[in-house]
Amino acid sequence: MALSMTHQFGSLVGTPVAIESTAGEAPATMNAAAVWKTPATNLRCKASKSDVITDGLSPPMSPCRSPVLGGIRPDLNVACQAFTMEAESAVEKEHVSGARWKKGKGSGVPVYVMMALDSVSMGNGVNRKKAVNAAMAALKSAGVEGVMMDVWWGLVEREGPGEYNWGGYNELMDMAKKHGLKVQAVMSFHQCGGNVGDSVTIPLPKWAVEEIDKDPDLAYTDQWGRRNYEYISLGCDTLPVLKGRTPVQCYADFMRAFRDNFKHLLGDTIVEIQVGMGPAGELRYPSYPEQNGTWKFPGIGAFQCYDKYMLSSLKAAADAASKSNWGSTGPTDAGEYNNWPEDTNFFRKEGGGWDSEYGEFFLTWYSQMLLDHGDRILTSTKSVFDNTGVKISVKVAGIHWHYGTRSHAPELTAGYYNTRNRDGYLPIAQMLARHGAVFNFTCIEMRDHEQPQDALCAPEKLVNQVALATQKARVHLAGENALPRYDEHAHEQILKASQLNVEGNLDDTEMCAFTYLRMNQHLFQPDNWRKFVAFVKKMNEGKSTDKCWEQVEREADHFVHVTQPLVQEAVAMMH
Asked: Any binding-site annotation on 150?
């Protein structure tokens, strides 16, 4: 008899992160560039009582189970293949050419699933290999397009500069190819540990950490002298501070080695390179570090410009603007990590420094440094992966708290110069557009009313603003959920956001991809799995479908009968 799938995945796939419960409703007075349009077609339909699938029902035992045969019946693979073919036919194949591609209108949004952070062990092997293999088989059968995996700088080039060990990743890529899954490979040049969802610790390469220990100014630094080892300060991007190489050269060399090692899979199995540009792999400053309790939601964070390399750039910018007295330090009245905007002189709504001539100078410099950092790395990335058939993408953080205030303080400290009076996401989208890169955005699953009212959170309005910015810049938008969610409310919000029903979107453009967080034992619990399979099918159908959601759910429920025993039997045979 098959062991409990949830129990086995709990021991083999890893521990998920608990979701922080929040309540309250964002005020209706929040300013936003536009509002969601009501979809033209009502996708709900009436169903007779006997047809309705309720949340309380567990998937029935599949007819594919055969106690007599003691395993999976031969026709199970046929059924799985049939489902996979149907799912693939629902999504129009993309034509990929270099870093640019076109996607058919209304053709559905392919779903990827993010793998565990520690899928590759510190010994460069695959962790929980049999469980990962079973999970990949189930995901493919459910119509999932592929998986996203972190390729850790701190694992691959751990021992010495230019010494690359691709061990575990060779196995993972081969497993994905065997199951017919595509791969989004993240070039993870940051430390794992210290951020939301970090269940393991993977530091930067030890030789890089040694250089930071020798010169602490290679680390991002706040005004109180705290050093952050999550990612090397962008202030020294072009300086040969890492044993004769610049950080950007190190990143380019790493990506070149990746390309050469996996050239046989590029454009076929490996279809996307997401290049890390900061903490948590995001294009931002480490302004809200959770490590050691430094920051807690929904604090405003702190500027990270106090290492000597950043201060040198600030001084040069101030001298160029004939304001030399502005070049010695960042804002001194911007509060502390866990303050709220109105606690500070710099971020308060009335007469705040952010809205002064000095504030405009500093925030322009601070945000431009981040844009230049992204531009430098993308230039190298494009050079490395030119004509390989892969997309290039960049992740931007969904900083939704205090979005309803005038200053948008948490966005400003992270490097996004977005205020009530200024669009901070359009410059980012325009920079990505110059390189043909995808704008990948988080917090797609969140709804405004789920967040704390007093913190003026507005994730829906933020996602809407970003969608408009990407449309103006003519750059593709992809998404992912910021926190693990398995409920239908989150699924419905993702579906809504992925369809890009915003003012100004006059065609059937949708997100080019969505990455679901994450592969763990909760995803494979029977009720969560049933909801997930239905969610994937809805995403694949796209907004051009003439099916109502209940019909899609009934069809998806049929295939749960296929995937459920596939996972249960595969995991049971591991023992």
From this structure: yes
* C-alpha torsion 307→213→119→264, nearest 10: 80
Active-site position among 145, 157, 171, 282: 282
Say which amino acid occupies 105: K
Q: Which amino acid is at 385?
A: F
Distance (Å, whole) CA 384 – CA 187? 13
Q: How far is CA 251 from the centre of its chain?
A: 20
Say if residue 177's pLDDT is above 80: yes
Residues 459 and 443 sit within 8 Å (Cβ to Cβ): yes
Could you give the CA distance from residue 536 to residue 384 in angstroms, rounded to a whole number? 33
480 included as an active-site residue = yes
Find the radius of gyration of the CA atoms of the chain: 24
- Give the position of tokens 């790493």: 254
Query: Nearest CA to 436 among 381, 481, 488, 480?
Result: 381
* Contact between residue 539 and residue 27 where contact means Cβ atoms under 8 Å apart: no
3-class secondary-structure state, position 479: strand
| pTM score | 0.83
Model confidence pLDDT, tens digit, residues 276-327? 999 999 999 999 999 889 999 999 999 999 999 999 999 999 999 999 999 9
Among 171, 480, 553, 569, the one annotated catalytic: 480
Rounded to whole angstroms, how far apart are CA atoms 273 and 276? 9
Bridge partners for 66 per DSSP:
71
Between CA 447 and CA 451 the distance in angstroms is 7
Q: Do the beta carbons of residue 507 and residue 474 sit within 8 Å?
A: no
Q: CA 414, 483, 443, 183 torsion: positive or negative? A: positive
Say whether 51 counts as a known binding-site residue. no
